[in-house]
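Slide 14.
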Amino acid sequence: MDLLHQCADRDCRHPCSPPALLRGRETPTARVPVDFVGIGLLALGIGSLQIMLDRGKDLDWFGSPAIVALAAVALVGLAFFVAWS
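Slide 15: predicted structure.
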């Protein structure tokens, strides 16, 4: 049986196979809490930016107070997101 057929089996013991090379190097996993503040800031920043870019042409870009407000919210939200991370 050649090497290809040996490694096709689940129980491959060839010394150069990836599981053999990485044996003992696995890092421990831990459950970490979800960062709801970070997710909220990212959603606020990206959402505001998306709405600003989507409605900008219809509302005359930065001639509209709504677009200026959306740009400010996007800038502040993303800046706080970067600072929070």
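Speaker note: The chain is about 60% helix and 0% strand.
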